[in-house]
From TrEMBL, chain A:
<dbReference type="Pfam" id="PF05427">
    <property type="entry name" value="FIBP"/>
</dbReference>
<protein>
    <submittedName>
        <fullName>Fibroblast growth factor (acidic) intracellular binding protein b</fullName>
    </submittedName>
</protein>
<dbReference type="GO" id="GO:0005634">
    <property type="term" value="C:nucleus"/>
</dbReference>
<dbReference type="GO" id="GO:0070527">
    <property type="term" value="P:platelet aggregation"/>
</dbReference>
<dbReference type="GO" id="GO:0017134">
    <property type="term" value="F:fibroblast growth factor binding"/>
</dbReference>
<dbReference type="InterPro" id="IPR008614">
    <property type="entry name" value="FIBP"/>
</dbReference>
From TrEMBL, chain B:
<keyword id="KW-0446">Lipid-binding</keyword>
<keyword id="KW-0653">Protein transport</keyword>
<feature type="region of interest" description="Disordered">
    <location>
        <begin position="253"/>
        <end position="294"/>
    </location>
</feature>
<feature type="domain" description="C2">
    <location>
        <begin position="1"/>
        <end position="109"/>
    </location>
</feature>
<dbReference type="InterPro" id="IPR057815">
    <property type="entry name" value="C2CD5_C"/>
</dbReference>
<dbReference type="Pfam" id="PF23025">
    <property type="entry name" value="YbjQ_2"/>
</dbReference>
<dbReference type="GO" id="GO:0030659">
    <property type="term" value="C:cytoplasmic vesicle membrane"/>
</dbReference>
<feature type="region of interest" description="Disordered">
    <location>
        <begin position="312"/>
        <end position="372"/>
    </location>
</feature>
<dbReference type="GO" id="GO:0005938">
    <property type="term" value="C:cell cortex"/>
</dbReference>
Length: 357, 1182
C-alpha cells in the first residue's frame, strides 16, 4: 500500500516561504520534514507527519518546476504556467539569487568555470553548506556573469534589470562579477580574515571610481574593466616618492597635521616613507595584470600589516590617510591632483574597510 | 449561411530551441480551419519570432464555425528533412458567434504539444464576421449562449425557463482504430483531441438547435461529459436547461414584456401558490429499502404497482436486439410492440414520453436505483377528497391528440376528468412549444375566471396545480440542471431521486468506419434507425425512471439534475440523480398564465440572480394571501406528498418555522441551499465512503455481479450519511452527490454532501447503540462507552457548528431533544431481499428508533471509526455547495485548486480493510488541503468536489477540485444568532446595487440614473480587456542576442493578466459584468520519459498546471479576468512505470467572465454616470 501519486495545484501557485528556504538550502525532503517538525509545524492545523511529508514533497516539486523560470527571471513575469502575484515573484527571485557570503567568499576571484565547479565538493564540506545549495549559488554566479559580461552599461543596473534583484543583492553580484572578471587574488591565507562583505565593499569602490563605466557609462562591453588611461596615469604618482623633496615636504605636512592627534605618531613618523612608498608603488604597478590581481594582498602586506604590528587604531589610520591624501594638495610641484584624489579616495576607503582583525 | 473567420498571427515567444546547432528556431505557423490552411513566412533564427502576418480569411458555414476549432500549428522549418511540429493551439470560435459574448480573441496563448507540454506562446488575433441567418431549416444555432453555471447567470434575468435539453454524439475512438498501431503517439493524441473538439462543437450546436426550437436563447447548467468506452467508442453527451435570458441592463424592455401584460387579470391564484398535495399518492417505498428490493429483482416493486397498473408494455423494436441486458428473463418480453406503428408525432419528445417509464415491466434497464431521501410536505388543508385516486399529476392530455403520451393506467384511475380547456392549452403548447399562442391565452383567461368563480380554495388550487403540472408534464423530462433558483421558484422539495443502470458496452454502430471522412461525426439520429440508438435509449430509460420516482414523491419536476457514468472494461454504470421538487410555474413555458408579476413590485426581474429580493416576493404573495409563500424560509421544506400516503416511512412534524405545514424529519437534496432557507448554525461537509470487493468476472456475469452489489453499496452509503448527519446534530443534506465507480475487483462509492441544520425541521435524534447479544458484561461496557463517546461527539459537534436551535414546545410527534427510543431506524448490513425488506421497513419505520446495531466488539471499533471523521481544524469550514450558510463577509481572497491522489492497494484486502483505506485516503486528503491552505484562515473550502476512479486494478484515484475563500472573522455575531432572519441572502446576493436600482426604477420610472450604471460596467470591462491586451502586446521579449536591454524597462510590472478561477458561480466582493462564453477544453498529455519528468506526480503536476495556464490564457484572450463555475470533468490517468510511460486526459469547463471589484465599480460608475446619462442603451452588446 502506498501513495503512488500526490499532487496539489492551485490556480495561484501556493508557495511556503519557509519550505522554499529549506529547498534553497539544499535539504532533502525527509530532512526538510524533520526540520519542519522540529520547528513545530505539526501544531499548525492539526497536521500529522504524513500531511507534512506530502506538503513538503509537493512544495519541493513546485520549486523544482519553477527553477527553470527563475534562471531567467525576466520570464517569470510573462510566463503563463504559474500564476504568482508580483510580490511573490520578487520574493522567489530574490531568495533564489541570495547566497551565503561564506560560500561567495570561497569562490571570490576564482574563475567561474567548470573546473571550479569540481571544487564545490570541497567548499561544501568546508563551509557546511549543502552541495546542492553550493551548486545553485555557483550556477547563479556563473549565469549572472555570463549575461552581464556582454552587456554595456552600468554593471549594477544591468544585473538589476536582467535578474530583477534588489539593489543590495545586485551590488553583491556586481562585486562577484567584478572579482571574477578581474581575477583579484582573494584566496591567499593572509586574506582569509577578510569577509565577503569587505571585498564587496572594495569592489563597489573600485567599480564606482576606477572603471570605465565610472567615467562614461555608455561604453561597449562590460564596464567593470578598469580604465586603462587612469591606470597609466597612476605611474605619474611615482614622483611623490621618487622626488626626495616632495617626499620630505609631504611628510612634514602630514606630521604637522597629525602631531598630538594620533597615539602612534612616532611610529607613523618613522614609517612614513615606507607607507607612502607602498601606496604609491601599488598605484604605479596597477597596469601590470599580475600586480593588479595582487592589489588586496599588497594592501594587506605593505600597509595593513605594518600598521597593525605598530598597533594603530582604526581612528589613527583614518586620520593618517585623510591627511596623507589631502596634504598632497599643498605640494606645489605636484601636478596630478585629480589622479591622486581618484586613487586615494578608493584606496583609503578600502584600507579602512579591510583594517580589522 | 456563411461567416467570415479572420485570423492574424502576430508573434511568438519563449519558443523551444529546435536547432541544436544554432540554439535557435526557424519558426512558421500553419493556420487551419476546416480544410483550408494558410501559412506564415518562416521567421528565421529566433526564439521570439515576429510574424506579423496578414489577416488569413476563411469563408465558412456557421455550422462549421460551431463545430470546428481554429487550429494553429507552430512548426520549425527544416530545409533538409520534414518540418518539426513545435506544438498546437486550438481555439474555440464559439464565444465569437454570440453577439453578447466576446468580440475578438487576442492575446498570448500557450503552444501545446501532447508529448512536451507547453512550448512557448503565440500571439494571435481572431475575429468573426457573421451574417444573420434567417434560414428556417438551418443546422446551426449561433447565438445561443451556453453557461456551465447552474443558476441563472448573474447579470441576466430569466424570462422563461424552458426545460431540459440533452443530446449525445458518438464516434470511434481514434485511440482504438487500426491506424493507431502505425502512427505516433503524438498523431494519435492529436487526432483524439481534435475529434473531441469537433464532437463537443457539434453537440453544442445540436443542443443549441433544440433550444431555439423551444424558443430559448440560452442553456444554463450545461453539463458535458465524455464516456471513453474504449473499444466500443467515444460518447460525448450533454444536458442542460434551456432558458430565455435577458440582460439585466436592457431594462426598459421589461416593462413591455408580454408576460407582464398577461390578460389574466382576475386570476388571483397563481399556480405557484397552489402546489399542495393533491398529487400523487405513491407507494414508493422507503428510500433505503426500495433500493435493495429493486436492485435484486431488477425492477421496482412499489412504483409500478400503482402507476403502471394495466399498462401495456411497449418496446421500441429497435432497441430490443441492441441492448444486451444483463438481466435474465429479459428475452421473454422482448418482442414488444414496435413503436413505429404509433402515429408519427411532430416532436421527438413525444416519442420518448411514450416510452414506458420503467424497467419494471420492460425489465430492460437493469439494476440499481434508489431514492435516497425523505422529505418535506405541504398543506394538509387542501387535501383532495379522493386523495389516492385522483391523479392530478397524470397528464390530462386527451389521448386523441397524443396517444403516445397517455398512460392508460393512470388515466383510468383518475376520477375527475381533466377540464377540457386545460388539455387545450396543453395541446397548444405542445404544438407550438415556442412562446404563447393566442389560443393559449384564451384558455388561460377562461381558466382564470373559472377559478375565481369557485369559492373553495381547495379545488381551485388543485386545478391550478394540475395546470402547472401538466405544463411540466407535457415536457419529455421536467428536469432542471439548475441547483440554485430565484426565490419563489422552488416551492417544495421532495427529496433525492436517483436511478442507476448497469449496461454492457457494445460496439457503437458506426457506418463511417472505413470511410475516408472518418472525422466526420456521426449522430445516430441522422442514420438509419436500425442500431445505434442504444446509448440514447439507455439514458431515456434512466430519465423515465427518475421522472417516475419524482412523481412518487408527489413532485412534478426534478431539479439539480445530473448524469454520470462509470466504465470498467465493458461494463458501464449509468447514473442519474436529482431532487424531486414542486416548482412555481412562473418561469415556465406557461409564464403568461401567471398574474403574479403584475402585483409584484419588481415586474419580472424577480428572477435575475442577484437582483432578486425575497422581500419583494413575499410582499406580493402575501398580498395574495398564500401562506406557503409567506414563510419562504421554510416553504421548500414542506412535504409535497400526501401525508396520509407517505411514499416512505418518514416522521412528519409541523414545521418548526411556521407551525402550519408538515415537514419530514430529514431532508436530502442535490441542490444548493436555497437563499431563503433558515439555517441554524453552520454547515459542514459530510462524506460517506465505501469500498466493496467484487469477484473478477467477464461480460454478463460481471454486470450481474455489479448489479447485485449496487443496492447494498447504495444502502450503506445512505446509512453512513444518515449516521454522520446525526452525529453532527444536523437534519438536512444539500448538494448530495453519490458517485459509484467500478473496477475489476471492487466497487467504490463516495457520497458527498453539505449537512446543515434546517430550522424548519425537527432536531435530529441521537444515535443509540444496541448489541445483539447483550449477555456479556464486558460487551455491555463496550457498548456503553461507545454510546458515551457518540453522545459526546454529538455535543461537541453541536458546539462546533453552533447548532443551538431555539427550544420549542413540542406539540405533536417526537420531541426535539433526542430520546433513545425516538429515532428513525437504521439497519446495518441487511441482506434480505426486496419485498421482505420493504415490508420490514414500513413496520420498523413506525417504531421510530435510530439504533445502531453491532454484532461484536470489532464492529464497535469499526463503527466508531466510521462515524468519527476528524473535525476540520480551527478556522476552517468545508462544504460542497456554493457557500457555507452562516458565513457572509467573504474577502476577495480566493484560491481554486485541484488535488489528485492515487493510492495503490495490497491484494487480498477485506471489505473492512478496503473501507478503512479508502476512508483514510479521503480524510488525509482533506487534512492535507487544510494544511496547505492554512495561510488563508479563517476560510471555507467551498464546492469541494471529489471524484473517485479505479484506473487500474488495485489503484484508487481521488481528485478534488474546490475553492478556498477567506472571510472576515469579525462577523456580526448578532446576525449569526438570529437564525430566523434570512442572513444568508445578503451573503449571496452581493449585488445590492442592483436591487436598489430595480427599486429605484420602479419608484420613479423616468429616472435615468440607474440606466447609466450598466454602461459604466461595460466600459470598465472593455477598459480592463484593453489594458490587459495592451500590456501583453508590449511584452514580447527583445531578441536573445540583442543587447538593447537598457530600453526594456518594463521589468517591474507583471505583463500577464491575473485570471481568477472558481468552481462557484460568483466571485466574492466583485460583480460579474459580462459573460464571454463557455470554456470547454480537452487535453491529452503523454510521456515516454516519466522518470525524467519527475515521476507520475511530477508529470501530472505539470500537466494540471499547464491546463490551468491554458484556461487562463484563453480567458484572457477573450478579454476576461475570471472563470466561474469551473470544473474538471475528467481526469483519466494511466501509467506504465515499467515502460517509463504515462498518459493523462483532462477535460475542464467553465464560464469566462469579466468581473469588476465592487470598490472599483462604485468609482467608475459614478464617473460615467456624470458623463453619460441617457445614451446607455447603445453601450450594451458591443
Amino acid at each position: 500500500m502506498s501513495m503512488e501519486l500526490d499532487v496539489f495545484v492551485g490556480n495561484t501557485t501556493v508557495l511556503d516561504q519557509d519550505v522554499y528556504q529549506l529547498w534553497l538550502d539544499g535539504h532533502t525532503v525527509s530532512d526538510a520534514v524533520r526540520i519542519r517538525m522540529e520547528a513545530g509545524a505539526l501544531q499548525e492545523c492539526e497536521a500529522n507527519a504524513e500531511v507534512l511529508h506530502s506538503d513538503t514533497t509537493d512544495q519541493f516539486r513546485t520549486f523544482q518546476m519553477c527553477e527553470r523560470l527563475l534562471q531567467s527571471p525576466s520570464k517569470v513575469a510573462n510566463q503563463l504556467l504559474f500564476q504568482i502575484p508580483p510580490h511573490r515573484q520578487t520574493m522567489l527571485i530574490e531568495r533564489y539569487y541570495e547566497f551565503d557570503s561564506v560560500f561567495a567568499r570561497e569562490v571570490l576571484g576564482k574563475k567561474l568555470s567548470k573546473g571550479t565547479k569540481k571544487d564545490l565538493d570541497d567548499i561544501s564540506s568546508k563551509t557546511g553548506i549543502a552541495l546542492k545549495s553550493c551548486r545553485r549559488q555557483f550556477d547563479n554566479f556563473k549565469r549572472v556573469f555570463k549575461v552581464v559580461e556582454e552587456l554595456k552599461g552600468p554593471l549594477v543596473e544591468n544585473i538589476q534589470r536582467h535578474f530583477l534583484l534588489s539593489d543590495v543583492l545586485a551590488r553583491d553580484y556586481a562585486a562577484i562579477v567584478f572579482f571574477a572578471n578581474s581575477r583579484f587574488e582573494a584566496g591567499k591565507r593572509k586574506l582569509q580574515y577578510l569577509s565577503f562583505q569587505d571585498f564587496a565593499f572594495c569592489a563597489g569602490q573600485l567599480i564606482s571610481y576606477w572603471t570605465v563605466g565610472a567615467v562614461d557609462n555608455m561604453m561597449e562591453d562590460l564596464d567593470v574593466d578598469l580604465e586603462k588611461d587612469f591606470l597609466h596615469d597612476l605611474k605619474d604618482l611615482k614622483v611623490l616618492v621618487n622626488d626626495k623633496d616632495m617626499l620630505d615636504q609631504h611628510k612634514s605636512l602630514v606630521c604637522a597635521q597629525l602631531r598630538g592627534k594620533i597615539k602612534v605618531f612616532s611610529e607613523m613618523e618613522a614609517n612614513f616613507k615606507n607607507l607612502s612608498r607602498a601606496l604609491v608603488n601599488i598605484a604605479s604597478k596597477l597596469t601590470h595584470t599580475k600586480d593588479f590581481r595582487d592589489l588586496f594582498i599588497d594592501l594587506v602586506e605593505k600597509l595593513i600589516e605594518p600598521c597593525r604590528s605598530d598597533k594603530w587604531t582604526i581612528g589613527d589610520l583614518r586620520l593618517f590617510l585623510k591627511h596623507y591624501s589631502s596634504s598632497v594638495h599643498m605640494l606645489e610641484a605636484f601636478r596630478h591632483q585629480v589622479i591622486w584624489d581618484r586613487y586615494m579616495s578608493v584606496i583609503k576607503s578600502c584600507i579602512l574597510k579591510m583594517y580589522h582583525d | 449561411m456563411p461567416g467570415k473567420l479572420k485570423a492574424k498571427i502576430v508573434a511568438g515567444r519563449h519558443l523551444p530551441v529546435m536547432d541544436r546547432a544554432s540554439d535557435l528556431t526557424d519558426a512558421f505557423v500553419e493556420v487551419k480551419f476546416g480544410n483550408t490552411t494558410f501559412k506564415t513566412d518562416v521567421y528565421p533564427k529566433s526564439l521570439n519570432p515576429q510574424w506579423n502576418s496578414e489577416w488569413f480569411k476563411f469563408e465558412v458555414d456557421d455550422e462549421d464555425l460551431q463545430d470546428e476549432p481554429l487550429q494553429i500549428t507552430v512548426l520549425d522549418h527544416d530545409t533538409y528533412s520534414a518540418n518539426d511540429a513545435i506544438g498546437k493551439v486550438y481555439i474555440d470560435i464559439d464565444p465569437l458567434l454570440c453577439s453578447e459574448a466576446a468580440t475578438v480573441i487576442s492575446g498570448w496563448l500557450p503552444i501545446y504539444d501532447t508529448i512536451h507540454g507547453i512550448r512557448g506562446e503565440i500571439n494571435v488575433l481572431v475575429k468573426v464576421d457573421l451574417f444573420n441567418d434567417l434560414n428556417r431549416f438551418r443546422q446551426s444555432s449561433c447565438g445561443v449562449k451556453f453557461f456551465c453555471t447552474t443558476s441563472i447567470p448573474r447579470c441576466y434575468r430569466a424570462v422563461m425557463v424552458h426545460g431540459f435539453v440533452e443530446e449525445l454524439v458518438v464516434n470511434e475512438d481514434p485511440e482504438y482504430q487500426w491506424i493507431d498501431r502505425i502512427r505516433t503517439p503524438r498523431a494519435s493524441n492529436e487526432a483524439r483531441q481534435r475529434l473531441i473538439f469537433l464532437m463537443s462543437g457539434e453537440l453544442q450546436r445540436k443542443i443549441g438547435l433544440k433550444v431555439l426550437e423551444m424558443g430559448g436563447n440560452a442553456v444554463v447548467g450545461y453539463l458535458q461529459c465524455f464516456d471513453l468506452e474504449g473499444e466500443s467508442g467515444l460518447v460525448v453527451r450533454a444536458i442542460g436547461t434551456a432558458c430565455t435570458l435577458e440582460k439585466i441592463s436592457t431594462f426598459p424592455a421589461t416593462a413591455t414584456h408580454p408576460n407582464n401584460s398577461s390578460p389574466s387579470k382576475d386570476m388571483k391564484d397563481s399556480p405557484q401558490a397552489a402546489p399542495s398535495t393533491l398529487g400523487c399518492r405513491s407507494t414508493h417505498s422507503s428510500p433505503v429499502h426500495s433500493a435493495s428490493s429493486r436492485l435484486s429483482q431488477g425492477f421496482s416493486v412499489s412504483v409500478p404497482t400503482l402507476l403502471f397498473a394495466g399498462m401495456k408494455p411497449r418496446h421500441r423494436s429497435s432497441e430490443v436486439p441492441r441492448a444486451r441486458q444483463c438481466r435474465p428473463g429479459f428475452g421473454e418480453e422482448a418482442p414488444g410492440v414496435p413503436l413505429s406503428s404509433g402515429p408519427p408525432t411532430p416532436l421527438r419528445a413525444q416519442t420518448f414520453s411514450s416510452f414506458s417509464p420503467s424497467k419494471s415491466y420492460s425489465r430492460q434497464s437493469s439494476s440499481s436505483d434508489t431514492e435516497l431521501s425523505l422529505t418535506p410536505k405541504t398543506v394538509g388543508i387542501f387535501l383532495c377528497p379522493s386523495t389516492p385516486a385522483l391523479e392530478s399529476e397524470s397528464s390530462p392530455l386527451p389521448s386523441a391528440h397524443l396517444p403516445c403520451h397517455l398512460r392508460p393506467g393512470m388515466a383510468s384511475r383518475s376520477t375527475t376528468p381533466p377540464p377540457l380547456h386545460i388539455s387545450q392549452s396543453d395541446t397548444a403548447m405542445l404544438r407550438k412549444s415556442v412562446s404563447f399562442s393566442e389560443e393559449l391565452l384564451l384558455a388561460v383567461s377562461g381558466m382564470g375566471s373559472g377559478g375565481s368563480a369557485g369559492k373553495e380554495a381547495g379545488p381551485l388550487k388543485a386545478l391550478l396545480r394540475q395546470q402547472t403540472q401538466s405544463a411540466l408534464e407535457q415536457r419529455e423530462y421536467p428536469f432542471f440542471t439548475l441547483t440554485a433558483f430565484p426565490p419563489g421558484f422552488l416551492l417544495h422539495v421532495g427529496g433525492v431521486v436517483s436511478a442507476r443502470s448497469v449496461k454492457l458496452l457494445d460496439r457503437i454502430h458506426n457506418p463511417a468506419l472505413g470511410n475516408t471522412r472518418s472525422y466526420k461525426l456521426l449522430d445516430w439520429n441522422s442514420f438509419t434507425a436500425d442500431e445505434p440508438e442504444t446509448r440514447d435509449a439507455w439514458w431515456e430509460e434512466i430519465r423515465q425512471e427518475i421522472k417516475s420516482h419524482a412523481k412518487a414523491l408527489g413532485c412534478h419536476a426534478v431539479v439539480g439534475y445530473s448524469e454520470s457514468t462509470s466504465i470498467c472494461e465493458e461494463v458501464c454504470i449509468l447514473s442519474a440523480s436529482g431532487t424531486a421538487a414542486v416548482l412555481s410555474s412562473r418561469f415556465m413555458q406557461d409564464g403568461p398564465l401567471d398574474t403574479e408579476h403584475r402585483l409584484s413590485r419588481q415586474p419580472l426581474c424577480v428572477f435575475s440572480t442577484g437582483s432578486e429580493r425575497v422581500e419583494g416576493d413575499m410582499g406580493s404573495s402575501a398580498s395574495l394571501g398564500f401562506e406557503e409563500v409567506v414563510s419562504p424560509g421554510c416553504g421548500f421544506c414542506h412535504i409535497p406528498y400526501d401525508e396520509l400516503n407517505i411514499p416512505f416511512p418518514a416522521q412528519l412534524t409541523y414545521c418548526y418555522c411556521c407551525r402550519r405545514y408538515k415537514v419530514p424529519d430529514v431532508l436530502f437534496t442535490t441542490i444548493d441551499l436555497p437563499t431563503e432557507a433558515n439555517v441554524t448554525g453552520k454547515g459542514c461537509l459530510i462524506q460517506a465512503r465505501l469500498c466493496r470487493t467484487k469477484k473478477k468476472a467477464q461480460g454478463e456475469g460481471n454486470a450481474t455481479a455489479i448489479s447485485s452489489l449496487l443496492p447494498f453499496l447504495e444502502y450503506e452509503l445512505h446509512t453512513q450519511l444518515m449516521n454522520k448527519l446525526k452525529l453532527r446534530g444536523m437534519n438536512a443534506l444539500f448538494g448530495l452527490r453519490i458517485q459509484i465507480s467500478v473496477g475489476e475487483t471492487m466497487l467504490l462509492g463516495l457520497a458527498s454532501a453539505t449537512g446543515v441544520y434546517l430550522t424548519a425541521l425537527p432536531s435530529p435524534g441521537g444515535i443509540q447503540i444496541a448489541g445483539k447479544t447483550p449477555s456479556d458484561i464486558t460487551y455491555e461496557q463496550h457498548i456503553s462507552t461507545m454510546q458515551k463517546k457518540i453522545n459526546d461527539t454529538i455535543d461537541k459537534n453541536k458546539e462546533l457548528y453552533e447548532i443551538n436551535p431555539p427550544e420549542v414546545v413540542e406539540e405533536i410527534i417526537g420531541s426535539p431533544i433526542p430520546e433513545p427510543r425516538q429515532r428513525s431506524r437504521l439497519f446495518r448490513s441487511h441482506s434480505e431481499s426486496s419485498d421482505e425488506v420493504s415490508e420490514l421497513d414500513l413496520s420498523h419505520g413506525k417504531k421510530d428508533a435510530f439504533v445502531l446495531e453491532i454484532d461484536d466488539t470489532d464492529a464497535v471499533e469499526d463503527i466508531h471509526a466510521l462515524l468519527t471523521d476528524s473535525p476540520t481544524p480551527a478556522g476552517f469550514y468545508s462544504c460542497n455547495t456554493e457557500i457555507m450558510p452562516g458565513i457572509q463577509n467573504w474577502t476577495s481572497a480566493i484560491q481554486m485548486f485541484t488535488s489528485v491522489r492515487v493510492f495503490r492497494l495490497n491484494a487480498n484486502l477485506t471489505n473492512q480493510g478496503l473501507n478503512k483505506i479508502f476512508s483514510d485516503l479521503c480524510e488525509n486528503l482533506l487534512k492535507s488541503l487544510y494544511f496547505k491552505l492554512r495561510s488563508m484562515v479563517p476560510c471555507c473550502l467551498c464546492h469541494l468536489n471529489f471524484t473517485v476512479a479505479i484506473p487500474e486494478d488495485e489503484l484508487i484515484q481521488v481528485a478534488v477540485t474546490a475553492v478556498a475563500m477567506s472571510f472576515d472573522k469579525e462577523q456580526p455575531l448578532e446576525n449569526g444568532k438570529q437564525s430566523g432572519e434570512k442572513t444568508l441572502i445578503k451573503a449571496i446576493t452581493e449585488n445590492d446595487e442592483q436591487l436598489q436600482f430595480n427599486l429605484e426604477l420602479n419608484a420613479e420610472t423616468s429616472s435615468h440614473n440607474p440606466l447609466s450604471s450598466p454602461k459604466g460596467l461595460s466600459e470598465v470591462g472593455s477598459h480592463l480587456s484593453a489594458r490587459a491586451s495592451s500590456l501583453e502586446k508590449a511584452s514580447p521579449l527583445p531578441e536573445g542576442r540583442s543587447r538593447s536591454l537598457r530600453s526594456n524597462r518594463s521589468y517591474s510590472g507583471s505583463s500577464v493578466a491575473v485570471v481568477k478561477m472558481t468552481p462557484l458561480s460568483f466571485i466574492p466582493g466583485a460583480k460579474i459584468i459580462k459573460y464571454l462564453g463557455i470554456i470547454n477544453m480537452f487535453f491529452i498529455r503523454e510521456t515516454s520519459s516519466l522518470r525524467e519528468e519527475g515521476g507520475v506526480s511530477g508529470f501530472l503536476h505539470t500537466f494540471i498546471a499547464e491546463v490551468f495556464a491554458m484556461v487562463r490564457a484563453h480567458v484572457a484572450a477573450l478579454g476576461g479576468n475570471a472563470v466561474v463555475s469551473y470544473s474538471m470533468k475528467e481526469c483519466v490517468f494511466m501509467e506504465n512505470p515499467n515502460k517509463n510511460q504515462a498518459q493523462c486526459l483532462i477535460n475542464v469547463s467553465g464560464d469566462a467572465v469579466i468581473f469588476v471589484r465592487e470598490s472599483e465599480l462604485e468609482s467608475t460608475s459614478v464617473q460615467t454616470q456624470s458623463a453619460t446619462t441617457h445614451t446607455s442603451n447603445g453601450g450594451e452588446g458591443t
